[in-house]
Amino acid sequence: MNDPRLAPATKQGEGESLLNRAEASVENPFEGIDFSELELSLYRPRTLFSIILSWVVTGMTFLALIPLFAVLLMLIYRGGKNLSWALFTQLPPAPLEQGGGFGNAILGTLIMVGIATLITVPLGILTGVFLAQASDNSKLASAVRFSAKVLTGFPSILAGVFAYSAIVLMTGGYSAIAGGVALSILMLPTIILTSESAIAMVPAKMKEASIGMGATNTQTVWMILLPTALPSILTGIMLAVARAAGETAPLLFTALFSNYWLASGGHFDLMQPTASLAVLIYNFSGMPFKNQVELAWAAALVLVVLVLITNLIGRSLSGREIRE
Q1: Higher pLDDT, 96 or 253
Q2: Domain range spanning residue 194?
Q3: Is 150 within 8 Å of 136 (Cβ atoms)?
Q4: SS3 at position 231
Q5: SS3 state at 263
């Protein structure tokens, strides 16, 4: 017959045994593992296949980078030797004239991209908020989202044709306004989709907490969702600006080109043909005059640097969001 006084002692002994086993497993967590099975060996087909594919992918990556770096080196060599302060302050030269610059083209590019940004940023962010807040069954939201995705692959020349028929023909002339409208069509889908994704990634608990404290939907969006998603939204804006700055085809139909400054009598006249770096490169690169060809190389280098800086700003904003 079992003595009930022995039960506590038995349970205590079992507890000590389990404790000893736990301590032993903590002291030697790799007990029972055969490390020879984990060694990297080329005699194993799977390991050999993985190494071969890794080297193939690495080699193909370097082969793909060769044309890119070749173009960059040629651009730095041909364009860098012509860089001077006069390029940023003077007007394009005549065919047989020496010197000159493309200051008006830099100014025109900044103005047209700025106009496009002023149009697309409010509209794109508001549309992104609508898509992120709309219900899954909303047909209007589905149609808007589908249209934005279609516009991401929209040919840039068609954006120029649309702006030509909507702005140039109505106003009776080429202008910076028409160029900005054409560029805004290309920037809009990027800003819409990135804004929607950024707002959708905000934790639902933050929205629920705001509503639980009595905030309205508008206050929640303005004070919680948008500030939290701001780094990603700014990244999308920078990427859209970088794309618009390098477009040529839309500006051929809308802004055309000009050899003069936009400023007239101390005021900017945006309703006249406007120079841009992309169109200047297009025009001068096919000229038979050496000075204009050299200016095209220098303008290409300046444009690449501007786009690179814009992309780096976007990457830095994206990296800040990840760290936060």
Answers
A1: 253
A2: 82-323
A3: no
A4: helix
A5: strand
In a domain? residue 24: no
CATH number of the domain at 319, please: 1.10.3720.10
Structural domain includes residue 13: no
The domain total for the chain is 1
Domain contains 33: no
Closest CA to 128 of 197, 183, 227, 222: 197
Cα 113–chain centre separation: 15
Listing DSSP states for 274-314 in one string gives ---HHHHHHHHHT-S-HHHHHHHHHHHHHHHHHHHHHHHHH
Closest-CA residue to 313 (of 242, 238, 246):
238
The structure's pTM equals 0.79
Q: Which H/E stretch holds residue 201?
A: none
pLDDT interval class at 249 (50, 70, 90) = very high
Q: Cα–Cα distance between 148 and 216 in angstroms, integer? A: 28
